[in-house]
Amino acid sequence: EVQLAESGGGLVQPGGSLRLACAASGFTFSDSPMTWVRQAPGKGLEWVATISGSGGSTYYGDSVKGRFTVSRDSSKNTLYLQMNSLRAEDTAVYYCAHQSGWSYFDYWGQGTPVTVSS
Amino acid sequence: DIVMTQSPDSLAVSLGERATIHCKSSRSVLYNLNNQNYLAWYQKKPGQPPKLLIYRASTRESGVPERFSGSGSGTDFTLTISSLQAEDVAVYYCQQYYSAPPMYIFGQGTKLEIK
Fold first, then answer.
1. CA–CA separation, A118 vs A11, rounded Å?
2. Which residues of chain A have pLDDT under 50?
3. Burial of A36 by CB count in 10 Å (0-12 exposed, 13-18 middle, 19+ buried)?
4. Contact state of B52 with A50 under an 8 Å Cβ cutoff
5. Nearest CA to B70 among B87, B88, B85, B92?
6. Which candidate, A65, A20, A11, A77, places its Cα nearest to that of B101?
7. Are A39 and A33 in contact (CB under 8 A)?
8. CB distance B81 to B19 below 8 Å
9. Interval A22-55: pLDDT, tens
10. Most-buried pick from A44, A64, B3, B100 (CB within 10 A)?
């Protein structure tokens, strides 16, 4: 059974940094692209970043490009999202998601909340 | 970039009645080599993660009730709930996964309520 568990969310000041983690189990971690999606309060779902199974390719949404970095550690079966230069508009619940190849998101974690406020 | 537009933004349907949500893509998401539409539907309830309902525009995910169905091709797609149940109250999102390099754009969401 695929399981994803995010951690690392919390309160951070504008301009600060935070690193989210997503512990994965139940599948061959290096076989699957993985993605971060977020939902700001009262808003819709927003794709944040995707990383290939090998970690060699990364892709970002325009709103986070240059500030966020997605990475993965196959020895720990863990996906990461390093978030720098955080802004109030980055406040959201962040979900990690397993992809069925380069396609839809079939398994999701429960999410971790991030609040950017002074 | 592909833009996904859903209609309506909100919808109120009586229990047992049909609910229909539309999704329009600014460009075709039909991949000609395999004749597959790279379009998914998700259900999002408060406090829960999104749940995959439909992929390839019309393939129901395992465990999803048969009352949920997807249709359409190219740029116009529909999610239909044939007989609305109380537990179907949620926000529904369409998403394209056609873009290369990947840009997994979601529609703005449709809020479904009980009338």
1. 9
2. none
3. buried
4. no
5. B92
6. A65
7. no
8. yes
9. 999 999 999 999 999 999 999 999 999 999 999 9
10. A64
Is the bond leading into A33 cis (omega within 30 degrees of zero)? no
Query: Which tokens is A90 given?
Result: 């980055």
Query: Does the beta carbon of A108 lie under 8 angstroms from any beta carbon of chain B?
Result: yes
Residue A41, SS3 per DSSP: coil
Which tens digit of pLDDT belongs to each residue from B45-91? 999 999 999 999 999 999 999 999 999 999 999 999 999 999 999 99
Q: Does A3 touch chain B (CB under 8 A)?
A: no
The answer for residues whose C-beta is within 8 angstroms of residue B95's C-beta and 6 or more apart is A45, A104, A105, B4, B39, B40, B41, B42, B104, B105, B106, B107
The reply to whether residue A39 touches residue B44, judged by beta carbons under 8 angstroms, is: yes
Locate A108 and state its tokens: 């999701």
Asked if A104 and B55 come within 8 Å (Cβ–Cβ), the reply is yes
- Beta carbons of A45 and B44 less than 8 Å apart: yes
Specify the DSSP class assigned to residue A88: G
B21 CA to chain A: closest CA distance, Å?
Answer: 16
| Predicted local distance difference test score (pLDDT) of residue B1 | 85
Closest CA to B57 of B12, B89, B25: B25
Residues A8 and A112 sit within 8 Å (Cβ to Cβ) = yes
